[in-house]
Amino acid sequence: MQESVESLVRTLESYRGRDKVIRTVCYGSQLIGGVLNRKTESEVSSQQLGRSLLLFSAQLSHCRTVLRLFDDLSMMAYSHSYGMGAGEEDKGLRWISVLTNVADQLYYPCEHIAWAADAELIKVKSDKWWLFGTVLWGTSLLLGILRSLRVLILLKKKLKTCQKDSSGNSCSQLHRQMQREILSVLSSMADISNAIHWMPAGFLWAGRFPDWLVGLMGTVSSVIGLVQMNTDSRNQADIL
Predict the structure, then answer these.
(1) What rounded mean pLDDT belongs to the chain?
(2) How many whole angstroms separate alpha carbon 226 and alpha carbon 240?
(3) Is 121 in a helix, a strand, or coil?
């Protein structure tokens, strides 16, 4: 029990960890609130709790939007350090990563303008800026899936060589990397389903997801992100 509490505290102490926890609680609240809100009219207490959870989820989402006001510089620093991906061995991975960085970098100012418009800090309509942000987010997710699929192809080739050389430790590491990429694909697919839901009506299943389904997709993605982050932390600790 104490180990779990200490692990949670360490996670919350970092910005990335705190964001992932808030994201998980946000979508989890939306999932439970959406389910409770579907109850019959006779179950008034369940519906009230459901509405409260949905409002709580909306506030956490707003909290994450405000915190992202300060992410531009860190994203810019990462994009600058990656550059044109000269250190990347595979040309396909290089260009996918560069395009992903461009989409991510453009996402932030679009979201900031939309937030400022909703807060009445600037006199523009926020709708088109939220749309631009959603399109850029969806583009980044699609590129992320393509990157993971490319990595999986490259890892499979390495795995064949590894099996021929009978290098057990190396093969085990490759299997873990493949599992991570598969989880990344599942996470991105869950997020893309929500991104499409938030597109204008008439585009695929835009606007058709009930609250509980949006919460479910987001929770799946968030839990995968937490698992991956904890796995990375343990691997780093083992190396040190």
Answers:
(1) 90
(2) 21
(3) coil
Q: Each residue of 141-158: pLDDT tens digit?
A: 999 999 999 999 999 988
Q: Is the dihedral of CA 116, 117, 119, 123 positive or negative?
A: positive
DSSP string, 13-76: HSHHHHHHHHHHHHHHHHHHHHHHHTS-TT-HHHHHHHHHHHHHHHHHHHHHHHHGGG-HHHHH
Task: Take residue 41 and report the two structure tokens written for it.
Answer: 């009219």
**pLDDT less than 50: residues of the chain:** 239-240
- 44-67 and 91-118 helices, crossing angle to 10°: 110
Distance CA 25, CA 20 (A): 9
User: Is the distance from CB of 63 to CB of 120 less than 8 angstroms?
Assistant: no
Taking the CB of residue 162, how many other CB atoms lie within 10 A of it?
19
- pTM exceeding 0.70: yes
Distance CA 211, CA 193 (A): 13
Is there a contact between 34 and 218 (Cβ–Cβ < 8 Å)? no
How many CB atoms sit inside 10 A of residue 207's CB? 13
How many alpha carbons lie under 13 Å from residue 182 in its C-beta half-sphere?
8
Predicted local confidence at residue 44, as pLDDT: 78
